[in-house]
């Protein structure tokens, strides 16, 4: 486990380094094409100070990226270089890794491939890309069996939702399974499983002909995002608990604001169609908002109890799972539905339905009912997620976490 933790730290520093270099290169290219003598952007007098500030940011980012390379190199030196096998040392791999630290994106690609291809055995890091990839990222027999359980549950719920009277509910339970895949399989395995679940869900529902990239990327991106959140929670639960509560309060404040903009509509408050209803009365909306506020207050109280409780009891663990489930559900709905949903629907409607929606004109029009519907959908998702997460965690703990020698 210590080796895995060290590798994760190096991965984190590597990705931070890559992101900083990408930002630097992007700004640098923008500055180059903005030079007036090139005739691409004609600067006015008042724009000179803005461009000067931009150049200053580029210079600062350059030195930050250099510092980031030294910082990443420190972790390589302490966690990897001292444990390389004699065979790798003979190939002077250390020298090439040092050079790659200051070779920008090409060097980053070299280090990424190297990290994927190493594995720890007999006290040393060995390099075999195929073997290491299979060991680190392959699916064990237990993984395949457990993924089969989740897929079965997903397909059963999808069939019930699409081919029974339950289709009137019009809720997207696949988001619950994206969270489950990320929780049990991590970011990358989970994103593959989420993509497969989304594809086969559409196939069985008979809607595969309307497959569009704006929706196809949702399971991949959201699962990776959820995986990062779970990793942060496992790394530092107390700080994560505080951040989650602050984020939930901010999201609830946004929900209150959006709700307040719709209270004067005489026809009622418009929501995305749920349970066959596309509008709710003001009284119903206020009741739902009140319940949401009360529930968030309860969660804050449970979070305080969680932070003050020192012993690792079953009660504390269940409270932690409940709060994490709530935050993960809210996060995926905010990203996939509130932020991305309106844009995705506009692109989908323009492509398949022949509409001529313009994003800047219709984004808020489609976003508002989606946001308000969250008052109904999020509690249902949380109940389903928590009901599945606890028993599945027990199954995973007792059966699926045992090491297996065969991976695929």
UniProtKB/TrEMBL annotation:
Keyword terms: Membrane, Transmembrane, Transmembrane helix
Membrane-crossing residue ranges in chain numbering: 14-41, 53-75, 96-120, 140-163, 175-204, 210-230, 242-260, 280-307, 319-340, 370-392
Organism superkingdom: Bacteria
The name this protein goes by in its record: Uncharacterized protein DUF3816
Species for this entry: Mycoplasmopsis mustelae
Taxonomic lineage: Bacteria, Bacillati, Mycoplasmatota, Mycoplasmoidales, Metamycoplasmataceae
